Amino acid sequence: MKYLNFFTENKSSKWIIVSIVLFLIFILFTPITTYNSLGIYLAFIESFICAFLIFMTTYGMTSFNDILYIKEMEEEKHKKMYVILVPFLSFIFGTFLLMHFLDMRIDNQIESNGVYVKAEIVDGQTTTSGTIRRKTTSNELTINFTTKKGESKTYKTEVSKEIFESVSKNLEVDIKYLPESPEVFKLMVGDENIKKFMKVSNREIIFNDIEKIINLKQTEILPYLNSISIGWLITEDEKGYIYQNSLKKEMIALSRNGHLLVKLKGSSMPEEFIGKEKILNKVVVTEKNTNGYFTMTKQTFELKNLKVIDIVGIGSNGLESNMIIEKK
């Protein structure tokens, strides 16, 4: 009842209601193409409008004409902290809330109506701005793709440092775009987008996967790898098949005789990668000036059904590491 009296007795309170209604309109009806191009700047403008209406309430304005006479209104008003604090906090909170819901609208549209195509990384650049004490860095990629209508499109998109460092020029990646607005798209790079849109865990290869892969048919390996992470490509030569993921910096080669050669992030520490509980026996041999290496250390791990050979060599090209897995 007390709050009802506030709205009925305080004529300036109507601006709070107008602000709330306008805020909901911005959330529900702001064109996602406009937000996609302007981003946080559009959220700033919309949130400022709503916050200013709240300021009109806290300052006691009953009409827009009162803005012209703001200096002539109650002198004590500007001394009260809530007059400025409430609109300011509303502006900050409103900006983040608008961005959250508008981002959600874009994600929902892409998830429901988006189309997958291959895009090429044309270029990328990192821009640093600000002062010596406080610098901000932004990473931007230029991509090109052909829509389902056969139209070639080139756009720039800002990405995180992690994504920027995981791609390279001329690399092909998956994107999902809106057919009616091709400028609205999501790169299928990085764990967040891949998990959200492609429903793939996008994790790193572990030794349990290697144990499964070595027992799969050659035609079953690529689908299995794609179920773990995105970005796998296959090439074939006289020695066998090479499966490479440039996004994850992972490589698995299948030889004609069924052996696997792997280069994975975790394989640089073989015992931890394999799992000490699986190792039945371990033999370490160090040789000098052999196989083109100044020094070569070969560790052989005997498992129940597999033999794992980890080779670390120091040569003219620096440190090289390879892991070979063979069936017993």
Instruction: Count the beta strands.
Output: 13
Count, helices? 10
Fraction in helix: 25-40%
Number of domains: 3
Biggest beta sheet attributes: 8 strands, antiparallel
Strand order of the biggest β-sheet? 6-7-8-9-13-12-11-10
Tell the overall outline: elongated
Beta-sheet strand percentage? 25-35%
Low-confidence stretches: none
Structural class: alpha+beta
How would you summarize this macromolecular structure in one to three sentences?
By secondary structure, this protein is of the alpha+beta class. The chain has helices at residues 2-9, 14-29, 32-38, 40-58, 81-113, 161-166, 191-198, 207-213, 218-226, 270-274; strands spanning 115-130, 135-146, 152-159, 172-178, 181-187, 232-237, 240-245, 250-255, 260-263, 281-290, 293-302, 306-315, 318-327. The protein is elongated.
Textual characterization of the structure:
The protein is built from ten helices and 13 strands. The model has no long low-confidence stretch (mean pLDDT 89). An eight-stranded antiparallel β-sheet has the order 6-7-8-9-13-12-11-10, covered by helices on one side. 36% of the residues lie in helices and 34% in strands. The chain has helices spanning 2-9, 14-29, 32-38, 40-58, 81-113, 161-166, 191-198, 207-213, 218-226, 270-274, and strands at 115-130, 135-146, 152-159, 172-178, 181-187, 232-237, 240-245, 250-255, 260-263, 281-290, 293-302, 306-315, 318-327. 22% of the residues are buried. It has three domains: 2-111, no CATH class; 114-198, OB fold (Dihydrolipoamide Acetyltransferase, E2P) (Beta Barrel), CATH 2.40.50; 207-327, no CATH class. It has 328 residues and is an alpha+beta fold. Keywords: Membrane, Transmembrane, Transmembrane helix. The chain crosses the membrane at residues 12-32, 38-61, 82-102.
